[in-house]
Amino acid sequence: LLNRYQSDPNVQIVTGVCPHDCPDSCSWQVAVDRATGRALDIWGHPEHPVTAGALCTKVDRYLERTYHRDRLTTPLKRTGAKGEGRFTPVSWDEAIDGIAARLQETITRYGAESVLPYSYAGTMGLLQGEGMAQRFFNRMGASQLARTICSVAGGEGYAYTIGATEGMETEAFARAKLILIWGSNTLTSNMHLWPFVQQAKNDGARVVVIDPARTRTARAAGEWFPLRPGTDAALALAMMHVIIGEGLIDADYVERYTLGFDALAARVAEWTPERAASITGAPAEQIRELARAYATTRPAAIRVNYGLQRHAGGGMAARTVACLPALVGAWRDHGGGIQLSASGAFRHMDRTALHRRDLLTGEPRTLNMIRLGDALSLDPAAIARAHHHPRPVDAETRPEDAGPPVKALIVYNSNPAAVNPDQSAVLHGLRRDDLFTVVLEHFQTDTADYADYVLPATTQLEHWDIIKPYGHLHLALNRPAIAPVGQSLPNSEIFRRLAAAMGYAEPCFAQSDEEILRQLVESQTHPTFDGITWDALLDKGFMRLNLPQPYLPFAQGDFPTPSGKCEFYSERMAQDGYDPLPAYTPPAWQQAGAPSSDTNAPLVCISPPAHSFLNSSFVNVDRLRTREGQPLLRIHPADAAARAIADAATVRVWNERGEVRLVAALDDGLAPGTVLAPGVWWAKFSPDGRNVNQLTPQQQSDMGGGASFYDVRVQVEPVAPPAAPEGASPAAVATAMRGDD
Ligand SMILES: Nc1nc2c(c(=O)[nH]1)N[C@H]1C(S)=C(S)[C@@H](COP(=O)(O)OP(=O)(O)OC[C@H]3O[C@@H](n4cnc5c(=O)[nH]c(N)nc54)[C@H](O)[C@@H]3O)O[C@H]1N2
Ligand SMILES: Nc1nc2c(c(=O)[nH]1)N[C@H]1C(S)=C(S)[C@@H](COP(=O)(O)OP(=O)(O)OC[C@H]3O[C@@H](n4cnc5c(=O)[nH]c(N)nc54)[C@H](O)[C@@H]3O)O[C@H]1N2
Ligand SMILES: [Mo]
Fold first, then answer.
1. How far, in Å, is the centroid of ligand 1 from the Cα of 445?
2. What percent of the chain has pLDDT over 90?
3. Which residues line ligand 2 (CB under 6 A)?
4. DSSP tag of 738
5. Which of 76, 415, 613 to mutate to test the pocket of ligand 2 (most atoms within 8 A of CB)?
6. N or C: which end of the chain has fewer CB within 10 A?
7. Residue 434: helix, strand or coil by DSSP?
8. What one-character-per-residue DSSP string does 146-158 give?
9. Residue among 368, 442, 607, 633 to mutate when testing ligand 2 (max atoms within 8 A of CB)
């Protein structure tokens, strides 16, 4: 491809990087027709060591998304009722002035804390993400948002043990002889890791996938180790029981580079494989075998991901699993260790000049994004619950201290009406007539339907940015390849214009996008950024952090913990109100009894990513939605039989929070009592106008105020025979729906 375009004088090739929330952060190249300015093609950067010339199913369709018939091209003002989705086009000036006037009035009447920014990782760009936006909201003194929806519980837990969310380098997986893929559907959510896993397999490595579902990754790995959702810490504790009990530890590594071994040994003494078996559902003999294999195979690598931390005990699970490599000395080997995220390798990045926290006067409250339903309530008790209380030692907020109701909500880079837990509470809030809602978007999403103003934003093909990845070590620059579609503007420019209209005169609100990014790069002083210059990024598109190659971060200890060691015992945890030792914190569903196949017993519902979607992004790209078929519920044949549910039948799935209709896909690749609804569908593309987040709780997990999306009890019953889309035979529909994750 590259060659064809390279030799064509009418085509310009522009280097950029995928902005989506995914560990891979692929660098890409875009072919642009010089005459028309239109993008012709997009492909993975051939020289990037992790992208290796390939894009995923979804981003291969990035031009379809960018030039989609439904792209928002002008600012819109609501004319219908909230949620109805009726709008009329207005000019940028009218929109900006209208929004600024309403914000001023709101701040005057209720205080700046009554304004809530709401954003996540629609783009991971440092500029179009929180660059200009944070400056704007800091200057305003708006409520702060704790961005907890994805990874915070696991990140905190892991960091108690290791010191930071840092670990093995992705490329090193190729050298492992045993790989445990733990709570990750790698082929779907992190596919650029797979070639390294495949290379290890080709060289004889054993690959085991620890997951309640036999995912496409488990099938490709060849070995599936099922367990009940939220029980991973019990498995890890029993593995440590076997490893210590059978003398399989690396005594030298433990002695030099770890803290609290004796206390750990005493703790895991109670964790026999039999005890773990009764919790996880995995046979004790298999637990023993896995522990022995892990301790005696070198190099041994673990890819642990966020699936295991979306539970009441998710932080503790990640903290406990993260102890394993130090116990067996796996960190010594090139190809050994554990990886949760690479973000910690970038922890020395200085973003003070970018976010300008110094503009903030006073101390506005921080609201936890997963409690948006509560935050948008008018009830002071609910608003108090939405305050961020990440640790057990953090005092609860009293209703009288909760602060004003949220009167203005500014949403960018997120689709909370679809992705947030407790959807009916969120929608109830968004429907409030006294709430002023602004949504910056590419598309008329479920959330945009509730906006007072919808503002059209540019995509990554149309703006500048820098991406700090969380799955590898290469910082990347994005150059715009095409002019903005319609009248769309970068988030940065929208906040720049809003700042001007609000009268914010600080020079930082006048900086151009390139100036901001250049300043960000040039203001880095830590040695890990040595050699990463603005010119080099412009020239090459991506640059690896200045870290040794190969990178074995903890081969000789050097853990960024308070003790400098891997902390089996953590004093910081004790101070924060946790058990200082690795432990099992049961999932909320288990506190009400183990699941069973009895007709009336609740099932545990997990809703990990669908293969063709990226959270709720791409659901409106026809080709990708067609590939997913319909919103499904994968259910074990035994659980289905007990409820008289036939394959392809429509089922009602409900609990105390809400209900949703899904199409049953019988599937024996599930831990008993577990059902799986691939996410995250737009409610408006779902038959009953709702999605699986009707069922998920605002309940926070144990650490960081994280979400517990996969800790959900549901009831399931059939409602109707299979519904065949027009023109398709029922048999073809059933086959297409058979849950290819
Ligand atoms: N195609 C695609 N790629 C994506 C995304 C997407 O939506 N679609 N999302 C992106 C985002 S936002 C993120 S955070 C990343 C990471 O994405 P993650 O959200 O971590 O998603 P998965 O890799 O699917 O990992 C979840 C896996 O954990 C399993 N699981 C659920 N509960 C448990 C449990 O208690 N224990 C264990 N062991 N396993 C469990 C699920 O069955 C699933 O296979 O991926 C990114 N990449
Ligand atoms: N049931 C269930 N719910 C989940 C999950 C799950 O596994 N199960 N996963 C959770 C996880 S891990 C995450 S990270 C969250 C993700 O939740 P979100 O961060 O809300 O992610 P998306 O659904 O992809 O929505 C991002 C939106 O940002 C928009 N966008 C992208 N780029 C830009 C831009 O440059 N400017 C503007 N203005 N908009 C832009 C996109 O069009 C899209 O609508 O969802 C969570 N929700
Ligand atoms: Mo995420």
1. 23
2. 94
3. 21, 120-123, 128, 149-150, 412-415, 419, 440-443, 445, 457, 491, 607-609, 614-617, 679-680, 692-693, 696, 709
4. S
5. 415
6. N
7. coil
8. E--SSSHHHHHHH
9. 442
Work out the number of other CB atoms within 10 angstroms of the CB of residue 265.
17
DSSP state, residue 391 = S
C-alpha torsion sign, points 350, 355, 359, 360: negative
Separation of alpha carbons 731 and 512, rounded Å: 56
* pLDDT above 70 (res 696): yes
User: From the CA of 402, how far away is ligand 2's center (Å)?
Assistant: 27
pLDDT tier for residue 600 given thresholds of 50, 70 and 90: low
Task: State mean pLDDT over 657-663.
Answer: 96
Which of 365-400 are b and which e, b meaning 16 or more Cβ less than 10 Å from the residue's Cβ? bbbbbbbbbbbbbeebebbbbbbbbbbeeeeebeee
Q: Which ligand is nearest to the CA of 589?
A: 1
Q: Degrees (nearest 5) of the Cα angle 307, 331, 255?
A: 115
**Given this model, what pLDDT does residue 1 score?**
65
Atom 30 (ligand 1) nearest CA: 307
Atom of ligand 1 nearest to the CA of 185: 23
Please report which confidence band the pLDDT of residue 92 belongs to, taking 50, 70 and 90 as the band edges: very high
Q: What is the pTM of this model?
A: 0.96
Pick from 303, 427, 396, 417: nearest CA to 705: 396
Of 18, 20, 22, the one to substitute when testing ligand 1's pocket (max ligand atoms within 8 A of C-beta) is 22
pLDDT band of residue 699 (cuts 50, 70, 90) is very high
The predicted-structure confidence for 713-725, as pLDDT tens digits, reads as follows: 999 999 965 455 5
Ligand with minimal distance to 132 CA: 2
607-635 pLDDT, tens per residue?
Answer: 999 999 999 999 999 999 999 999 999 99
**Alpha carbon nearest to ligand 1 atom 44, residue:** 185
Beta-sheet strand order (sheet of 436-441): 87-89, 76-78, 453-456, 436-441, 408-412, 115-119
Joined together, the tokens standing for residue 137 give: 């909201």
User: What is the distance in A from the centroid of ligand 2 to the CA of 150?
Assistant: 10
| DSSP label at residue 394 | S
Going by C-alpha positions, the residue among 155, 27, 141, 217 that lies closest to residue 611 is 217
For the chain, the average pLDDT equals 95
Residue nearest to atom 23 of ligand 2 (CA): 616
